[in-house]
Amino acid sequence: MRITAIPGDGIGPEVMREALRVLSFFGGRELKVDVAHAGRTAHDASGHVLPEITERLVLDSDAVLLGAIGDNRPGDYEDGLRPETALLALRKSMGCSINLRPILCTAQPLGSRYGYAAGSDILIVRELNGCAYYGRPRGTRLVHAPSAIVPEGFDTMRYSDAEVRRVARFALEAARHRRGMVLSVDKANVLSTSRLWRDSVASTACEYTDVHLEHCYVDSASVEIMTRPHDYDVVLTGNLFGDILSDQLSMLPGSLGMLPSAAVGHNGRGLYEPVHGSAPSIAGLGVACPIAAILSLAMLLRHALGWHAEAAIVDAAVERVARALPEQGVPYGKASSASTSEVGDAVMAELRYMS
Ligand code: NAD
Ligand code: IPM
Ligand code: MN
């Protein structure tokens, strides 16, 4: 088994260090870990946000664990210059069209502001290879306004029936193994892509009479799910809405620093990464919460390697640590006042205690 670890930018290397410590706890098995670079760090070193060597390692590996990518500089308009284009290219070339983002509120820090969410368990199933993220044409151009030539930017939001059915089927199957409910989120009152989305989801669901399907507009869904999280099970949505909803719902367990994700697809290779980004304002301070990265590793162990017992131990260790995290310092993004390595130490101690 081969894993490629891409630490990336900002807090990426800091949280990756803790995730790799956890991985080393399960050492002594047939596992090869290569470290590769992408994003701003790679661009500064090699002139490319996604160097060829990284692409090759990724395609040769069974799974990829990624820290975070992103450190934009003014004027980085061109696709090849922005660090995020490396991430988008990886998701596409790996065929990772389905993004699983579990929002599990068992491990809520003590006294979290959203205490009412305790016990809720939502799985966001986000389409990851389409929408306005990849649609063509896109770009900037000069246009003639009445009295001047002015610049404008444009993107294309696009979904095909086949793309929607693929992710819908995945969400419906997932619901079958959970509580049997899917909420499909769109903006069908305004967008053509969303009207197609709604029709394609509904007709795919005809084969799943045991699953209860509802549709909701994204603006309304953002309030409904936050206020009644226990009423929801699988939340199925497109690339753009899924991006926004997942940051918002990270408030339920208490912090963006605690949300893992898995991007999976048709060729069996997955990309495992925290939902959060490179958090430039706290990079280098040693205060980033590594829980999202450690839980992403647990998803990798479970889905890519089939190490179910090991993944369950990591989940349980993190849950015990998260329960003990003090409430002060749970503003947006922060998980606790503990440092990155202190949280990592606590997880390692729990792993040793439980094994
Ligand atoms: P961000 O997720 O990096 O940060 C949002 C807020 O959450 C900030 O206050 C940050 O300090 C905090 N935060 C994030 N992760 C944290 C952690 N583990 N522990 C404690 N606090 C944490 O979002 P942003 O500031 O909008 O984006 C910064 C850069 O990251 C951008 O370039 C963006 O494109 C990129 N990004 C990358 C990924 C990825 O690599 N998967 C995901 C999201 C954003
Ligand atoms: C995420 C991020 C990415 C996205 C960016 C960095 C391209 O926000 O994974 O949530 O929008 O998908
Ligand atoms: Mn995001």
Explain what the structure shows:
Strand 11 (262-264) and strand 12 (270-272) form a beta hairpin. Helices cover 38% and strands 18% of the residues. Helix 7 (218-227) runs parallel beside helix 8. The model is unreliable at 328-333 (pLDDT under 50). By secondary structure, the protein is of the alpha/beta class. It is built from 11 helices and 12 strands. The protein folds into 2 domains: 1-96 and 264-355, Isopropylmalate Dehydrogenase (3-Layer(aba) Sandwich), CATH 3.40.718; 121-251, Isopropylmalate Dehydrogenase (3-Layer(aba) Sandwich). The protein has helices at residues 12-25, 40-46, 52-59, 84-93, 161-176, 192-205, 218-227, 239-249, 291-303, 308-324, 340-354; strands at residues 2-8, 32-35, 63-68, 98-104, 121-127, 139-144, 149-154, 181-186, 212-217, 234-237, 262-264, 270-272. 48% of the residues are buried. The longest helix is centred in the C-terminal third of the chain and has 17 residues, at 308-324. The two termini are 23 Å apart. The radius of gyration is 20 Å and the shape is globular. It has a 10-stranded mixed sheet, sandwiched between helices. Strands 6-7 form a two-stranded antiparallel ribbon. The site of manganese (II) ion (MN) has 2 residues, from helix 8. Pfam families: Iso_dh. This is 3-isopropylmalate dehydrogenase. It catalyses: (2R,3S)-3-isopropylmalate + NAD(+) = 4-methyl-2-oxopentanoate + CO2 + NADH.
